[in-house]
Amino acid sequence: MASVEIRDVRKAFGSTQVIHGVNIEIEDGEFVILVGPSGCGKSTLLRMIAGLENISGGEVRIGDRVVNDVPPKERDIAMVFQNYALYPHMTVADNMAFSMKLRNAPKPEIEQRVSKAAGILGLEKLLDRYPRQLSGGQRQRVAMGRAIVRDPQVFLFDEPLSNLDAKLRVQMRTEIKELHQRLKTTTVYVTHDQIEAMTMADKIVVMHDGIVEQMGAPLELYDRPANLFVAGFIGSPSMNFVKGKIRAGAQPSFEADTGGVYPLNTAPAGSDGMPVVYGIRPEHFQLADNGLSAEVVVVEPTGSETQVVAKIGTQELVCIFRERITAKPGETIRIAPDPNLVHVFDAQSGARIS
Ligand SMILES: Nc1ncnc2c1ncn2[C@@H]1O[C@H](COP(=O)(O)OP(=O)(O)O)[C@@H](O)[C@H]1O
Ligand SMILES: [Mg+2]
């Protein structure tokens, strides 16, 4: 196992700069997830750690070694891809053994490692099958088995669950997390799915257009997003954003451009009249007699909770309530944002104010 350090790393394809100076420290044994929308540079960064893409600027360290010029097979990493990349003409056992055979490892050692990995992943009964005889989830497990057999310093995963259906994705998420708790191998995992990131990571790195927007523990990002991008990206359904102005004074409040006055606990000194974006998560509204008057637009019960789209002035807000809602579209309900859980962002820069 080893730490991974990414220092001011840049990448250009021809004259197009796609990674603009990224710094990430990954501790030995940590499970770090790079998350962000498609095209933000996650795979490129992962491929630079793997050595599959050269580094235009900065430094990548694995353990205490700078690996910029070290070829992939000497970096002691194992990568798992979205498309599994299994050899179709080889059995499960041979797919898993392949890298060790290439290295001329002794046969008993290969057998012992393959059988151990198969045990960890529940593949014992499938060792003689070919990839075409496996389900998507089983193939993904073989791809992980192949990585485990190599017992690398670092696991690199690039969207390994994207080809699986929703139910299997949830199951594999748990399996990968369990696997990490067991093996404690340093892991860098790329996904565009913020739920995967929230549920699996020790540390999340939110990327956007080739930069790091914020990095931290999942609940840190949820509780204190540094800017509008992270606030909108982390959490599902997304945070509601309302444009307007701060009204400071003894009892501060937020006056929405779309109509309505929302509660605020505190306002920074000198912020009266300041244009801001008021952020409130759907799950942070309550039904309350002293709440804001809102017109019901859509009610979506899921059983455990009810999602309601309601309008304050011309602003549509998504709210989630634990209780069941009998109100019909067009009727009025009273909803209260919890002022302790409100986020305020600078309207210009998008940076968090409070
Ligand atoms: N080989 C390449 N040549 C030119 N541009 C590339 C190449 N690979 C990736 N890119 C560009 O780099 C950016 C980041 O891509 P990528 O790392 O694949 O994003 P992600 O994995 O976050 O979806 C994209 O704009 C993509 O078009
Ligand atoms: Mg990608």
UniProtKB/TrEMBL annotation:
Q: Which Pfam families match?
A: ABC_tran, OB_MalK, TOBE
Entries under CDD domains matching the protein: ABC_MalK_N
- Molecular functions (GO terms): ABC-type transporter activity; ATP binding; ATP hydrolysis activity
UniProt keyword Transport present: yes
Q: Which GO terms describe its biological process?
A: carbohydrate transport
What start-end ranges are recorded for coiled-coil regions in this protein? none
Q: Which UniProt keywords apply?
A: ATP-binding, Nucleotide-binding, Transport
The protein's topology relative to the membrane is:
Peripheral membrane protein
> Cellular component terms, GO, for this chain's entry?
ATP-binding cassette (ABC) transporter complex, substrate-binding subunit-containing
Please classify the protein's predominant subcellular localization into one broad category: membrane
Q: Where do the ABC transporter domain residues begin and end?
A: 4-234
- Compartment list: Cell inner membrane
User: What's this protein's family per the entry?
Assistant: Belongs to the ABC transporter superfamily.
Record's protein name: ABC transporter ATP-binding protein
What is the source species?
A: Alsobacter metallidurans
State the organism's lineage. Bacteria, Pseudomonadati, Pseudomonadota, Alphaproteobacteria, Hyphomicrobiales
